[in-house]
Amino acid sequence: MFEKLRSAFGSLSKLATHTSLSEKDIDSILWDFELAMIESNVAQEVIQSITQSLKRGLVGEKIPRGEDQVAFVKNELRDSIREFFSKTPNIDLPQLVKSKLDKNTRDHFSPFVILFLGINGVGKTTTVAKLAYLFKNMGNTVVLACGDTHRAGAIEQLTEHANRLKVKAIAQSYGSDPAAVAKDAQLYAEAHNVGLVLIDSAGRIQTSKNLMEEMEKIVRVVRPDFKIFVADSLSGNDAVSQAKEFKSFTDFDATILTKADADTKGGAALSIAFITQRPIIYLAVGQEYKDLVAFNVEQFIENILT
Ligand code: GDP
What are the chain's domains? Predict the structure, then answer.
């Protein structure tokens, strides 16, 4: 995972061959670094922000001699990236779910509702199933809402996951209103004390405006507790522009990056977090239900710096 980004950051060890850094030294070395980041699918705004922050940290610095030189540069970089991720809030989704469900009483039950957003093919339906698996294993009950009523096969795909996971799926026919399907699932959960409602949604790109209106309608009708944007880490800057558009229409809370197992570049994680100012909460790392890992900033940093 993320080999390319790691080699981009590796190129910075050239900085360590200098004993004191002038702006010119830094510029010439950062030039290679910038190119390597572009190749790693890091968005332009992000590259600028990282290089500026590095420059601020390094210009005029005396670099210690010997082995400590590389460590010195890496530390600067680690601090820049850490600072960069510190702008996104820390979210513990299982904890959020638990605190809402703990408030339920005998007379009143309100489920935790999650809406999944994203373009077709990014792995949204698979991710809904993975989250259902995760939360079920934590002892929660789950209902799935087949909110993609456009894509042929989408309802069967999610229903099949529900059968395998032994959870309920709520569906209507193709062409029906996804907000109504989502509401049905919410009402079902309220009536049967089901803790989590996971709503799949459509992701056709041809009619982006209609899609965004559809998402806004689901949000208005069910008022989800949490909105997750699902992005394909392999799709590079496309994922970044999708993130911007979904963010402006739905103001989602967090991102899950899929196909990280196949992502040799790693730039999408940096770019999406920076541009949306929302955290990456999980990485999807394969096609099986268990293939979902919590995203950990420190681990990500170590991954790309070692
Ligand atoms: P949707 O159209 O966004 O609902 O996408 P799907 O859930 O149908 O997934 C599209 C394809 O990506 C399927 O072949 C999935 O098995 C595959 N996929 C989903 N998540 C991952 C992942 O984390 N890693 C890999 N390698 N493949 C994935």
Answer: 3-85 (1.20.120.140), 93-305 (3.40.50.300)
